[in-house]
Design brief:
With 207 residues, this protein is an all-alpha fold. The chain is built from nine helices and no strands.
């Protein structure tokens, strides 16, 4: 049983413990692809932007340490917002041709990499500066700000009977108009409920 628990712990460490990173990359990649832009670059930039605003100290650990608690389901809501904004910035700058143009004889993969440099750097600096200003103005981090002002109140609301009924009504309402209600509501409900499930798992040591 001990060996199985250790194996499952390793699997958890590579999946649920870093869930937000996986979701952030997926959102950046797929959103950029929907705009016919560089999905790989957008996914990587989204991860960079998320890490840029994530607290880099925890407990007695100093700067440069990122606790896994910021990367699991608890950070999902923050990750979604950052990935959407970072990708939108990146794509809009790419569409405006604010890129490094390489000669035609350069391989396409190299050309795409250089084209993504300026939009990517700008998107990263937007979040780097924002995170720095929030810290300087007395806030802990952009992550904490979003969690305390948006995610935490929504999680409190989501625990009531009324919110469960509202979710069911919305799902069926979307279906009435020919839209896949479950798929539309799933990202929203996951962002609210997965952090709660993660907290319960830690509290009761569910593996």
């Amino acid at each position: 049983m001990g060996d199985l628990s250790g194996i499952n712990g390793n699997i958890w460490w590579g999946t649920f413990a870093i869930m937000t990173l996986l979701v952030v990359f997926s959102i950046g990649y797929n959103l950029a692809k929907s705009y016919d832009s560089d999905g790989l670059a957008a996914g990587l930039i989204s991860i960079g932007a998320f890490i840029a605003v994530t607290p880099q100290a925890h407990g007695e650990a100093g700067w440069g340490y990122i606790h896994w608690g910021y990367l699991n389901a608890t950070g999902l809501f923050t990750g979604i917002i950052i990935a959407l904004i970072a990708t939108e910035i990146f794509v809009k700058l790419m569409k405006k041709n604010l890129v490094i143009k390489m000669p035609e004889n350069v391989p396409p993969a190299v050309g795409r990499a250089f084209a993504a440099v300026i939009p990517g750097v700008i998107a990263l600096y937007v979040f780097g500066i924002l995170g720095y200003l929030i810290t300087k103005l007395g806030g802990n981090s952009l992550y904490d700000l979003i969690f305390n002002l948006i995610q935490k109140p929504l999680q409190g609301f989501s625990q009531g009977v009324g919110s469960a009924m509202a979710a069911v009504i919305l799902i069926n309402l979307f279906w009435f108009f020919g839209l896949h209600g479950g798929n539309i509501m799933d990202p929203i409900m996951n962002a609210l409920y997965l952090p709660v499930l993660e907290a319960l798992r830690r509290k009761y040591s569910i593996t």
